[in-house]
Amino acid sequence: MGSIFHQVILNLRTVGSSRFGYLSHKTLCTTSVQGTNGDYARNLNKPVSGMMMPRSGGIATMMRLPYQESTKGLDACFVGIPFDTGCSNRSGTRLGPRQIRTESCLLREYNSVGAAPFDSLQVADIGDVNITMYNIKRACDAIQNKFQEIIKEGCIPLTLGGDHTISYPILQAIKVLIQLRFRTFLLTKVTFAGKESMRW
Known about the structure:
Elements: E1 7-10, H1 25-29, E2 30-34, E3 40-45, E4 76-81, H2 96-103, E5 123-128, H3 136-152, E6 156-161, H4 167-174, E7 191-192, E8 195-196
């Protein structure tokens, strides 16, 4: 990919009416990364700058990155799990993925310490896992299957949730890759207060 210092060239192509110069969300998010030999290695997705489109505009994807339906060609992807059925006392986290995406329009391509993940990683928002809100076991199966599919493609999932229930199927999906030691919450406990399986 050439030098660590890549020259980033914005690839702005107008779509629609050239008279008004409309830019598509995908076009605003795409840049070309040039290596030291002058070849364009690959197009990388970048958050849309507030200088190009107001922060209040555009499609509400995570960090205003492009949306794509599959993980093909991605190093990492944002995926939402709008689920809170396992949290009977304080519902509302099902709205988390949507609100996180809305607020993420304020995030920028580079942060205050100079981290630049979008200079070397291909990242996009692949939307939400299609789940039922009425059957926890079926929802967990759908989450596990989706994450196994993402991992099989060699993509790293960056999850927007959702209540603590979603941790269990995600861990089930990635257990083939790594071993983890972690502090657990009651929602991932097999038995609690004499009752079996809080997850189902």
